[in-house]
Amino acid sequence: MAKYEEEFDFKGIHCFRYMDTPNQVYYLPDCPTPSRDAQGKPAISLLQWGAKGILQLTSQWTVENFLLEELQAYLIQQCSDAPEAIQLMIAPLTIREVALVLNPDGDNPQVLGTSQSSGYPPYVAAFSINLTAGQIKPVIEALSGELNRLAVNYRIALQKRIVSQGSINFNQPASQGETKGLYQLTKTVEVELERRADIGRWTGNYES
Question: I need a surface site. Which of 2, 89, 100, 115 has the fewest CB within 10 A?
Answer without folding.
Answer: 2
